[in-house]
Amino acid sequence: MQPNLWDILGQKTFNTELREGEIDPRAADNILLAWPPILELMTKNYLQTKGIKVLDFGCGAGGFCQKLNSLGFKVAGIDPSIGMIESAKLHTSQSIQYILGDQHKLPQGETFSVITSIMTFPFIENVSETFGALSTALKPTGLLCFAVFNPDWVRDCLKSNISFSSFDSIENPKKGLKIFGELQTPVYIRNAQEYSEIAKNVGLSKILEAYPPFTPEFISKYPDNRPKHLSEYIILGFQKK
């Protein structure tokens, strides 16, 4: 049987419980660049976090779940990779609920005040179906907050033959492959307007659009050859009507 790419990556690449100097730059940028604006939006909307139910969709090895748990949120994480889920259970709080699966395995009849997702949607082809399921799982006025690739950054990576390959276009990249060392997987690139239209169709209104820059501290601590003059991420936040 072919090994699952995400099972392999969950063992180290996206294991955010490693010591700081051992964290892979591809996970460190999630933590240091993508997490802060999402956490800021959440804590601004929920000054009292105790008992506020949050689902991290595509939770990976559980690093963001652990962070949310430490802030007092009641956290569940869901991911289709058994390797990721096993790593999450091993390295994070036992009070966090972990679910193996995708949007089809969301707890029936259960709703959440916040759903987060860190770099999951770019690896889902039919993301409109996913948004529909997540909107249904949100409470009224609930938040959907997530990080995705910035198409401009992907374009610059392609021009330098870094991190991505086999795209339909370099100037307007939509579909191709994301490279993780010797591994690769299909990836789907969408801009903020495309995500906003998808969200609008399932009753969600945009309340945040941010492009966090690479910081001097990050560049010094995690040097690599990826472009640094543009944000790697788009951070988007939506609220259910």
How does this structure look, described?
The chain is of the alpha/beta class. It has a single domain, classed as Rossmann fold. It has helices at residues 5-11, 25-45, 63-70, 82-91, 127-136, 151-159, 192-200, 216-221; strands at 53-57, 74-79, 97-100, 112-118, 138-149, 164-165, 175-180, 183-188, 204-210, 233-240. Helix 5 (127-136) links the parallel strand 4 (112-118) and strand 5.
Observed structural traits:
Rossmann fold; globular; 241 residues; alpha/beta; 3-stranded antiparallel β-sheet; 7-stranded mixed β-sheet
Strand residues, percent: 25-35%
Number of domains: 1
Trace the largest sheet across and list its strands: 3-2-1-4-5-10-9
Look at the structure and name the CATH superfamily.
Answer: Vaccinia Virus protein VP39
The CATH C-level class name: Alpha Beta
Number of helices: 8
Order of helices and strands: HHEHEHEEHEHEEEHEHE
- Our measurement of the CA-to-CA distance between the termini, rounded to an integer number of angstroms, reads 45 Å
Mean pLDDT: 91
Low-pLDDT stretches: none
Helix fraction bin: 25-40%
The strand count comes to 10
CATH architecture type: 3-Layer(aba) Sandwich
Class by SSE composition? alpha/beta
Shape: globular
Computed CA radius of gyration, to the nearest angstrom: 17 Å
Which sheet architecture does the biggest sheet show? 7 strands, mixed
CATH topology (level 3) name = Rossmann fold
